[in-house]
Amino acid sequence: MIEAIGLSKAYGSTLAVNDLSFAVAPGTVTGFLGPNGAGKSTTMRMILGLDRPTKGKALINGIPYEEISKPLTKVGALLDANWIHPNRSAKSHLRWMAASNGIPASRVTEVLRVVGLEGVGDRAAGKFSLGMKQRLGLAGALLGDPGILLFDEPVNGLDPEGILWIRQFMKSLAAEGRTVLVSSHLLSEMAVTADHLVVIGKGHLISNSSTVDFIANATASTVRVRSPQLPQLRQLLVDQRIAFTDQDGYLSVSDAPIEQVGDIAGAAGLTLHELSGQSGSLEEAFIKLTGDSLEYGDRNPTAALAPGADPFAGPNTLTKGQN
Amino acid sequence: MTLLNVERIKLFSTRSPYWCVALILIIGVGVSILFGATASDSSITLSNSQFWANLGMMVAMVMAALAITTEYRFGTIRNSVLAVPKRGSVLAAKTIVVALISAVMGLITSIIAYYLVLTIGGNHNGQMDISTSGDWRVLLGNTVIFALAAVIAVAVGTLVRQSAGAIAILLLWPLLVESIIGAFGKTGRNISEWLPFSAGSRFTQAANPQIEGEDLVSTSAPNWWQGLVVFALTALVLWIIALVVLKRRDA
After folding, report:
1. Is A314 among the domain residues?
2. Of A11, A25, A42, B2, whose CB count within 10 A is highest?
3. A146 and A190 inside one domain
4. Alpha carbon of A83: minimum distance to chain B alpha carbons (Å)
5. Are A176 and A199 within one domain?
6. Model ipTM?
């Protein structure tokens, strides 16, 4: 069980994390989602006692991280796979961590096998590829067989095989009853990994719900219907006060379930060529939700083409643009 | 004890401490052979047989500073703090381990240097005799000085967090800063003699060090125990500042 209670972190006058409260339950993979710079890493660092919160607190099983004795046996974390001494062997890297928490040295060999690095334990970790470093970091997190695991952007920079491996690994850890919190800026990745989503933007909590609910709420679903008798169908929908938009060759019905649209057409004996549910893309939904809270970047990439700024409108537009 | 073992594993699973230990031995042996072979008979004294020590201490400080700055350089300080959230214990264990290694190197190399100078240079007018307690202090004092220098280096490394910056401070301070102040007339010299590294070096000097019959140290300079106190207090104060900063700072 991880709890953040009114967690805030200020760097000078910038609030990186602002009054963030949420809880992470055991037995599920909880996704910690937000655009780059939303405050995910800072939050995780505060949970782990690395950074001092400006306000609020983070608790692990009811106590701050600093007060856990032998913390590696309770909490495992992989925040940055590059936190390794390049000349130290993978085995030595794990050996000092094990020694510091009274974990038997035999466990080092064990976790190296679990992550598939048993053959390269004596090699300097600096010579590892990113994927291997990620595995070494994972081995470090698993060293004390902890019930709580935190991963910060674990699939960043990995090849598809590595991504699949990490994804399955996290799921199996949660299936064993562990608490897993994994951050990402990719909704599509979280959609297939996480059961629950904590979404933040600009340090604020945006949403805290199950992944299914989040996606259902975030993506507007419409019904696409094609028919050779489109005018009649249009009239029937108007009669029933169902909202729709005319598209090129089809109607897009926005506030009726797919069954109802089919029933209406069937009752009137209309031929349909297509009747299909459409949901908006996850990425669109995510940007819509967190768009107001992007810390940096071009807020509106199409601004240059907004009305009044038509690039083909001639010199007049140029003058406007310069004002 | 557990944490000392942890710091021992960390230190000896990287290359730099081996290089530094080897370099201290090479400096001790090399300087002593050259000194024994070239110095005039009157210069071959117990005090001068420890000529190697200043340079050797610099290397010991580099080793001690690197023990903490590389943790910042490679981010492993975060792993250290995650494994042992009591940051004071991490710093204390690291300091004890590097100070111990530094002290042992000071002790071993002092003795090797003494016998090399004695064998090659010979013992003229009993100048290499070890009889008084002061003689023992001159011979073995670098054990203590090296340990304290390592403490200073760990503290500076913790505060600066960068290898290059920390090493620059640790080398320029005794080599340049203290001697530049000493160049500003009589007042400058009086101040400079009480600055940490100059004061510390009095601990391993004979009561009235001379070269070619000329006094090296003025009468206002600290005596051996005052010098040690100044050096030890410097180490203690710097270490406490480092401890407070480490605890407050984001890792």
Report:
1. no
2. A42
3. yes
4. 5
5. yes
6. 0.87
